[in-house]
């Protein structure tokens, strides 16, 4: 066992993972499993639940996998009841579920807005309400990791309600870090930006989705070189690594913080590396790009 394993001390711990069947959630589940964590996970993707659970069992982990719509309070309560019967206590909660689709606010219905709020904030409240007593049972505190987004930290046109809901999750989590601190329960957040996943692809509406379908991969790579300071978006495994850190004793004095796992996009705040020999990193392109675009 290396120094990171010894200091991280995740071996033998128990986690609840809300949204662990595919994409980022699956990467988190497998990373935790490889670190020696037993997992209760839920999702609406039955095939994904079965596949992720099988991979975790192959690692020697104890696994509870259930079909649950986390946005339904009754189903979430049933999942936590089953989890309490499966584990006597838990050490970690990761709330991954979230998402939306890009659409101007005035085109969204009241139902659309309510769904965005529940999917990106409301269920987090209920999940933490159920999880805290199970975390307390461990007698050694615990760690909660909630997923927010870069959109919670900027004006995100086309994602207004989603951005507002994620901002609510962010501030709620910070407030809960203060409230739960005396119990030894830490609460932190991970804020991704664009990450290659089916969920992010689904958020793009028509006709953009069709227009993007035949764009060569190398064009996307060049676009990210313009936008992301580290030249590429983070992978699902990069986000899983951040969860491992915040969940582990390596972060035992960190709570109430937002960890931006975005290749530096949040730090850049709109600065772009424009092409066509501009050499400019300003938000507005210079002459070379302007001539290519409009000349």
Automatic annotation (TrEMBL):
Transmembrane segments: none annotated. Gene3D superfamilies: NAD(P)-binding Rossmann-like Domain. One of its GO terms (molecular function) is oxidoreductase activity. The keyword Oxidoreductase applies. InterPro entries: NAD(P)-bd_dom_sf (IPR036291), SDR_DHRS6-like (IPR051122), SDR_fam (IPR002347). Keywords: Oxidoreductase. Belongs to the short-chain dehydrogenases/reductases (SDR) family. This is NAD(P)-dependent dehydrogenase (Short-subunit alcohol dehydrogenase family).
